[in-house]
Amino acid sequence: MTYDPTNIFAKILNGDLPCHKVHEDDIALVMMDIFPQSKGHTLVVPKAASRNLLDANPADLSAVMPLVQRVAQAVKAATRADGLRVMQFNEAPAGQTVFHLHFHIIPIYEGVALGA
Ligand code: 5GP
């Protein structure tokens, strides 16, 4: 599988499409998910071009994972969620719909179903 530079997150990274940005640095863009699974569902989108985890450069992963942790900590504090899921899908059969590597930070609230 190859990387398609016309994917929607590439367009957001290029500034060709808007997003609700919460953070940006040299490594990644952090934005709110347009179809949140729960209040505060946030996406960390590395700037390095890879389709998913399977083709990512290990050095790029090393650079982005501390940011994933910091975003998880910040989302947990901001939402006061009871827990968090950090998720990442690889290829369509596994649920991937946007083919640019990204990490979901999904707050979990006790007694509230995802997607509710
Ligand atoms: P995947 O299933 O590929 O891991 O997740 C893609 C995620 O991107 C989904 O949660 C979906 O709601 C989100 N998404 C799709 N299009 C857009 C968009 O244009 N902007 C933002 N912020 N999120 C998007």
TrEMBL record:
Q: Which domain of life is it from?
A: Bacteria
Query: What is one Gene Ontology biological process annotated in the Swiss-Prot or TrEMBL record?
Result: nucleotide metabolic process
Spell out the molecular function terms from Gene Ontology: catalytic activity
Q: Where do the catalytic residues lie?
A: 102
* Full-protein interval shown: 1 to 116 of 138
Q: Where would I find the HIT domain in this sequence?
A: 8-115
Q: Where is this motif: Histidine triad motif?
A: 100-104
What protein is this chain from? HIT family protein
